[in-house]
Amino acid sequence: MATASVSFKSREDHRKQLELEEARKAGLAPAEVDEDGNEINPHIPQYMSSAPWYLNAEKPSLKHQRKWKSDPNYTKAWYDRGARLFQANKYRKGACENCGAMTHTKKACMDRPRNVGAKYTNMNIAPDEKVESFELDYDGKRDRWNGYDTSTYTRVIQDYEAREEARKKFLKEQQLKKLEEKDGEQDGENVASEEDEEDGLKIDEAKVDESAQMDFAKVEKRVRTTGGGSTGTVRNLRIREDTAKYLLNLDVNSAYYDPKTRSMREDPLPDADPNDKFYVGDNQNRLSGQALEFKQLNVHAWEAFDKGQDFHMQAAPSQAELLYKSFKIKKEKLKSESKDKIMEKYGNAASDEPIPRELLLGQSEKEIEYDRTGRIIKGQDVALPKSKYEEDVLINNHTTVWGSWWKDHQWGYKCCKQTIKNSYCTGLAGIEAAEASADLMRENMARKEAAEEEPVRQEEKKLATWGTDIPQDLVLDQKLLEESLKKEAKRKKEEMDERKRKYNVKWNDEVTAEDMEAYRMTRVRHDDPMKDFLN
């Protein structure tokens, strides 16, 4: 339902409004009419039919959903580039001091700055530019082809047509050269028929197009995309007949394929015939050719930087490569000098006798298997990558590195089994002392647990009936006990008969052992089944 504006309604008015909306949706009540007399669909949701509060709509309407800010002055026209208007003969007041045009000032002048402006020379007054102002609509402001002249695209078509003609002409000349060479080799004998010559002169356009499309390894670069910025380098699609490297071996335990970098370092088919394989893993490229030289260059840069050389491989690659070349030259020179010195001092006994054949061939017990083409199948050691961080550095008399031993969630040294980093190595004596200390700690803990399990036995004290300890040699006096029994009987009789109770009550807190024994003997025990038979 279309509502004019949000206003407060009572509960009864709101209920009536809901009933009216339901009736309109069911067709029992006529539809609501807007200010133009058009019926409003009752099934339109309220958030679409209700007008915003800032429009101050007094009557129900759907105009706020239409293009209610439409302006007939909007246009999609564009500026007339390079158009000129009136050209004056002399300088006018308020014109540009540099060129003399009235449409701009000296600060905004795009002409070449003159030594003496037109204001002072009154010569070569520039014509006035055509200044236009447009009120573009939403689409006009965002139209990237607004103002584009379609006639300029004919030049692009002409360039492509000229390239195509030049390509066809070049291919035809190449084909003619090949035919002339064949004719020269045949010494003038016309072996081929006229039909063959015509077929030879024809250009197979399909093959040319196919060869042009086979540059799948070409690297292209796309810039200024719709998202902005450069997308970097991308390669064309690979040949469709190629098998993806992750499909060469479908075993889950085979070589690992990294989908993010699209790399598979190990050989996916290590047991297959090398002559039938066209892919043996990325490590083949990483350990051969220029990749290995690049690794050596990086290692040299790291080591030189650690030794104080102020250069960086990524910041100055040319400098790093030049220093590496000079380093190799100096290294070879030092090797040759040291070799000459040793031979000069000790002589060269090997030069007098022929070198054994075993040394010439470089025989060893190491087995390396080659295929028919000379490639190594197995037996070659994989070169371990060298890190720029320090490795196998032993300190403080340790024979192993930190982290070579693990116990109880703690790292340590394996040589002395210490878990404190940068500690001094104590060797076997430290291990024995640590074991003895651990055994002593375990014994102490076991003794403590045993002591906690056995509770301390406490002697039970027999308390007397009136709250004191019963002495071992307690003897009751029979006469005093009889008197105490009489007093207890008299007291109970007085409690039963309130009339015999005296006004002046005397209280005596001195209780003897006989008095307590008399109270115990005459006391009524309610849980005693024989209490009714007592006197």
UniProtKB/TrEMBL annotation:
<keyword id="KW-0539">Nucleus</keyword>
<dbReference type="Pfam" id="PF11708">
    <property type="entry name" value="Slu7"/>
</dbReference>
<feature type="domain" description="Pre-mRNA-splicing factor SLU7">
    <location>
        <begin position="136"/>
        <end position="404"/>
    </location>
</feature>
<keyword id="KW-0508">mRNA splicing</keyword>
<comment type="similarity">
    <text>Belongs to the SLU7 family.</text>
</comment>
<dbReference type="GO" id="GO:0008380">
    <property type="term" value="P:RNA splicing"/>
</dbReference>
<dbReference type="GO" id="GO:0005681">
    <property type="term" value="C:spliceosomal complex"/>
</dbReference>
<comment type="subunit">
    <text>Associated with the spliceosome.</text>
</comment>
<keyword id="KW-0507">mRNA processing</keyword>
<keyword id="KW-0747">Spliceosome</keyword>
<dbReference type="GO" id="GO:0030628">
    <property type="term" value="F:pre-mRNA 3'-splice site binding"/>
</dbReference>
<protein>
    <recommendedName>
        <fullName>Pre-mRNA-splicing factor SLU7</fullName>
    </recommendedName>
</protein>
<comment type="function">
    <text>Involved in pre-mRNA splicing.</text>
</comment>
<dbReference type="InterPro" id="IPR039974">
    <property type="entry name" value="Splicing_factor_SLU7"/>
</dbReference>
<dbReference type="InterPro" id="IPR021715">
    <property type="entry name" value="Slu7_dom"/>
</dbReference>
<feature type="compositionally biased region" description="Acidic residues">
    <location>
        <begin position="182"/>
        <end position="199"/>
    </location>
</feature>
<dbReference type="GO" id="GO:0000398">
    <property type="term" value="P:mRNA splicing, via spliceosome"/>
</dbReference>
<feature type="region of interest" description="Disordered">
    <location>
        <begin position="178"/>
        <end position="203"/>
    </location>
</feature>
